[in-house]
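Team,

Forwarding the record for the chain on the shared tracking sheet. I've put the sequence and predicted structure together so nobody has to dig through attachments.
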Amino acid sequence: MKAFALLLLSVLSASIASAQSQSPDMTVFGLHLGEKLAIPECGRLTKKSDIYAENVKAPCFERFAVPWAAKSKVVTPVVTESVMIIFPYAEQPTLSSSGKLMGQIVDGSLESIGFNTSGLSAQERTISSLKEKYGDPSKVLDETKQNAFGAKFDSPVAIWGFENLTVIYQATTDKIDSGMVNIDTKKGSDFRDASLKALRPGPKL
């Protein structure tokens, strides 16, 4: 599933023929893409604990690619790592179905942000918010999907392409109640492409 998601995003990013002319806003929910991650790691239950505390009071990040046993031994700053970005309850992004964001750090800078939406029920609200921020999409792909009962439904994919930013919105992923938004700098897109190649090295001679 992870490899398929990487492949789909890579193909969609490559399908953009030309970049939109205006310079996009490089912030996402107050976080600056292409810059050093400006929030701290979330606190733990105790000083030696491997478990993160709940009910944070300010935006922070959690490491999840590091084994639990090693988390208490890892210190900030992150260099190249995937993280989960957590917000206080009152500040959680309403477009994100979980209220959390996925972040990709590359060479110490935040280069990609992704989050799940609530699928088709959130489609109008999500596309409206993205248009308000980025203008009309560069491309819209009309996809037809089918649920577990055999009913078919439209599930568009909208793409915004800028010189140093790509935004991809999938109204649904593998479920009708789950969509996805990915926002990548060029460096973030390149990192995803390299990750995909590492997952699929190809046959040997």
